[in-house]
Structures are given as structure tokens and as C-alpha cells.
């Protein structure tokens, strides 16, 4: 039986039992709904600017800025041009302003666009006077308007937008979750009490549909690798929107695959806890 993409067990029964117990504990402690999955799979972005230059964050229509992390200070040698002697000092010490994240959240969170002049006065006290500093921000563009379509195993999912608008795929999962027992009821008398979800569905749906006016995806184990126990009825769930092709983003990239069973176990629990 494969659970959450396990394809082999090389660590012995003790590890398998631990991983299964860990996933069950995670599920019982609070299963995330689809919106939480969506927020974690939207493509991450980053931006940086040196002292004296503006930092610009921008999201496409129907999405807003969600700040993930922020750093203001020194540390990346040669990232920003500096006055004579400043780079040498930067190599010997790093510094950071602890108010950076708070400032970015107050100025940019939930806005579509944001521009800030990068200067130590923006963050209060200069964390290291005389040293070249920069502001680096990691953020996501969280959809404010999206549609969700669910199709049961054995069917065909049809996504379409009225031209000239095109499809923007935000997230996709194939499998099933105990959080939605009434969605495509399982043929099993007692469906498994844990999630079995194929994360590769996002890449496959994006490849077939992103930036197109219409697409058709067969919902089957031939299209997506079966992540569940035999006899479990699965479904494909997709979050998408129709947008202006001139403002289209590249398709989101799922998290890189994990090579070990241990990594798969903890990554799965993190994504859906």
C-alpha cells in the first residue's frame, strides 16, 4: 500500500510504522482545507534593493502580496555597491534589523503593489553604520479570486475561459482527504483515515492547461500516479482563474521531489498540517 506518494520502503517496518503514526497524528490534530494547500503551493517570489534604491513588489490582478520573510542588513558580500572600505567591513561582520519583517507586513501585506525607499531610517536604528546594506523580501501573490473544480475518478475535467482570457492554474491535487468524505464517496466501507494525495498533479495540469483558453484532463490513474490504497476512489481538485494573457504569470512550480522516505513523510505532514 502506498500512502502520500511512498513508492518503496527501505528503512524497515519500524520506520514505516513511525511514519504512518506520524501522519495519522498530524491528520487528527487538524487537517488543512484546500485554501491552506493553495496558499502553500502558490509560486514564491523574491526581490531585493540596496540602500538608496526603491524596493518594488508587484502581484498580477486578482492577487495580493503575502510577505513570507524580510531581511535588512549586510551579509551577502558584493551584493550592493558601497563606499570605500565598506565592503571590507561587511566581510568581517554581518548585521540585520529585527524590525524588517514587521515593517514589510505593515506596509505591503495584502496590497497588490508596494514600493519602499530602502534606507536604515525606515527600520529605526541603523544596525551597522558605515556598512553597505540591502533589503531582501520573499513573498507570494495570493489569489483573491479563484474558482475550484472537482471531478471524480473516471471523469474528464474541462476548464475553459472566454477568449481572450486564458487559464491561470494555481494548484491541483489528485487523491482524497478524510476532511471531505462526501466528495466522490469511496467504494470502500471504511476509507483510509489519512490523506493520500499526488503532488505531481499540479505540474501535469499546469502543463496541459496554463495560459490556454480551454483544456481537457482525464481524471484517472493513467494520467496521475495512484497515491492511495487499492479500491480508494479519488478525485482531481483544481484551483484556477481566467486572466488577461498580458498579465499571465508562469505556471507555479511544486516543491522539489524528496529522495528519501523520511523526507517524504515530513514534507507531506508539513504541507497538509
TrEMBL record:
Superkingdom of origin: Eukaryota
GO MF entries: carbohydrate binding
Alphabetical keyword list: Hemagglutinin, Lectin, Repeat
Domain SUEL-type lectin span(s) in chain numbering: 49-142, 151-243
InterPro entries the record matches: Lectin_gal-bd_dom, Lectin_gal-bd_sf
Annotated PROSITE patterns: SUEL_LECTIN (PS50228)
Protein name according to UniProt: SUEL-type lectin domain-containing protein
Amino acid at each position: 500500500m502506498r500512502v502520500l506518494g511512498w513508492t518503496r520502503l527501505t528503512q524497515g517496518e519500524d520506520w514505516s510504522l513511525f511514519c504512518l503514526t506520524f501522519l495519522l497524528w498530524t491528520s487528527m490534530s487538524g487537517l488543512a482545507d484546500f485554501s491552506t494547500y493553495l496558499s502553500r503551493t502558490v509560486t514564491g517570489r523574491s526581490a531585493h534593493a540596496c540602500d538608496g534604491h526603491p524596493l518594488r513588489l508587484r502581484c498580477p490582478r486578482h492577487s495580493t502580496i503575502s510577505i513570507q520573510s524580510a531581511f535588512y542588513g549586510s551579509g551577502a558580500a558584493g551584493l550592493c555597491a558601497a563606499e570605500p572600505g565598506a565592503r571590507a567591513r561587511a566581510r568581517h561582520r554581518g548585521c540585520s534589523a529585527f524590525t524588517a519583517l514587521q515593517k514589510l507586513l505593515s506596509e505591503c501585506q495584502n496590497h497588490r503593489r508596494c514600493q519602499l525607499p530602502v534606507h536604515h531610517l525606515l527600520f529605526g536604528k541603523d544596525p551597522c553604520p558605515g556598512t553597505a546594506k540591502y533589503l531582501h523580501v520573499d513573498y507570494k501573490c495570493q489569489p483573491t479570486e479563484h474558482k475550484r473544480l472537482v471531478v471524480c475518478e473516471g471523469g474528464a475535467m474541462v476548464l475553459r475561459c472566454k477568449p481572450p482570457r486564458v487559464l491561470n492554474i494555481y494548484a491541483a491535487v489528485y487523491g482524497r482527504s478524510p476532511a471531505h468524505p462526501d466528495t466522490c464517496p469511496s467504494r470502500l466501507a471504511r476509507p483510509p483515515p489519512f490523506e493520500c494525495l499526488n503532488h505531481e498533479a499540479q505540474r501535469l495540469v499546469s502543463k496541459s492547461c496554463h495560459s490556454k483558453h480551454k483544456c481537457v484532463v482525464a481524471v484517472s490513474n493513467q494520467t496521475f500516479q495512484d497515491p492511495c490504497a487499492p479500491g480508494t476512489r479519488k478525485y482531481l481538485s483544481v484551483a484556477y482563474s481566467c486572466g488577461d494573457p498580458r498579465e499571465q504569470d508562469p505556471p507555479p512550480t511544486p516543491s522539489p521531489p524528496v529522495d528519501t522516505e523520511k523526507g517524504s513523510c515530513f514534507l507531506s505532514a508539513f504541507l497538509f498540517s
